[in-house]
Amino acid sequence: MSLRRDVRHGLRIGRAEFVRSLRGYASETRRIIGLLLLLLFFGGSLLFSLPAVYVVGRGAQSVTEIPFFDLVATAIPVGLALLATFRTLERIGRVENESLVLTTVHPRAVVIGLITAEICRIGLWFGLPLAVVAATFTAGLGAPSLLLTTAVVAAPLACCTTVWGYAVGVAVLRAFKRLPGVRRTLKVVGFVAMVGLVLVSQSFGRLLAEGSLPLEWLAATLTVGPLADYLALAFVGTPLARPFSAAAVVTFAAIVALTPVGLVVATRQASALWFTDRATGGDRGSSAAGAKATDSTGGFSTPKPLAGTNGGHVAWGLLVRGVRHPQKFTHLVMLVFFLGPLGTTIVQSSADGLGPLLAASGAGLGTYLAGATFGLNPIGDDRPQFPMLLLTPTAPRELVRGRVLAGVILGVPVAAALPLATVALGTSPLSAVGFALVGVFMCVAAAAFAVGIGAAYPIYEEREFWGATTVVPSTLVLMAFMFVVGPGTVIGLVATWFGVTGHLSATPLLAAGLGLYLLVTVGVSYGSYRYAVRRYRTYTFE
């Protein structure tokens, strides 16, 4: 096929993929609510920052007066390339219905379509907020042509970084396919690196306020001069225009020339990934696997403490599935963004307060794990097996109890062991035992509450994450869980601290408050558990 025909087909594929993404955003009420909450949170932050952007535009006399322009100009293309690479690993490394699509059009057309749709999505999620910021800065500067020149400069850069990000992402997927051990290692390394990045980024504001961050040295070290000169071309025709430099022209020519080269590389990488047959193992492998399955239970045999009830068998099955398919826990990464401020507080705490703070943190972490691991999407997680589950003698309450028990098995050791271990750091035994007992109680309450809220908003759609397909809970459900369980846990831990240190005296008011707290906690958790059981009993297939 000719390049012109592939481009035409690719643009049609890209339009169809982008329109399907828009329909997916608005396909369900809960997604619309989630988008509105996201818009409210980030849109509010953006609105509060616009006056400062306007003031910077009013007072700027040269590009050098824009704070850290060179550093930001370097970070933008690097960030776009990394975003495109991650998106390729997570979602667009393969095309849906590839058996039909790849026998209809050339792979180059498919690659063009996927990249075009991704550029449109990036423009929707990041381009619109940046356009608002640019328009505000332009209003302060008084140079309307800035919007046009910014678009002319940004468009080639976005295309080049997205194309090469896609090529790198597909190459990584090919490496994962050939070396599955490397994929598992990189998942661990990537998670640790992301945790470190979040912790560092959340400490950035504090270091900046203290003046201990060498910003000038970082800007001079990390800035790539040609990229900064190229992005400075956006100010041509404005009072902030820089003189033309050879580096800016060469960078522009390189970006334009590297885009089709990246498209060729991406097409070859994608073709090699899509048209390479997966190993099936052959008859010998199947016979060996059959013999192994006959000789061993594969580690699925339920241990004695759990084998006495049907709920225990269900819990052990969930734990085994979680170990074999850890991608099911990708939603737990959300906790990292809340651990950052806590980690900073722990580092800055005194020696006397370190032990109790770690004890309380352990109880809170165990509570989060007890509810968030297996309870936030019970129906969506079980739906592929529902025809079998609903026909077995196991009652729905046993299925729900199994999920609660599986979460408790993961959360209780953390909630109990970490507080007890802080005795070595100076925590009094009474405080450690108190935090451990409250943590165990909170784990049971959080696991019971999670199955109820998860059953109310099930998610059935699978998504690809780092080459593995899995079903994860709704972000809206996860946030609701954290906003309910988090404050409730904090109240219980603070009350425990005041109780074990002798700062609380037995009064009718205290007894009434404690009774109300326990009544609400137990009542909401038990009501959520009963609701999940009813949802299982009344579930119907559409």
Automatic annotation (TrEMBL):
It comes from the Archaea. Coiled coil: none annotated. It comes from Haloferax gibbonsii (strain ATCC 33959 / DSM 4427 / JCM 8863 / NBRC 102184 / NCIMB 2188 / Ma 2.38). This is Uncharacterized protein. The chain crosses the membrane at residues 32-54, 66-86, 124-147, 153-176, 188-209, 244-266, 329-351, 357-379, 404-426, 432-459, 471-498, 510-529. The keyword Protein transport does not apply. Keywords: Membrane, Transmembrane, Transmembrane helix. Residues 281-304 are annotated as: Disordered. The lineage of its organism: Archaea, Methanobacteriati, Methanobacteriota, Stenosarchaea group, Halobacteria.
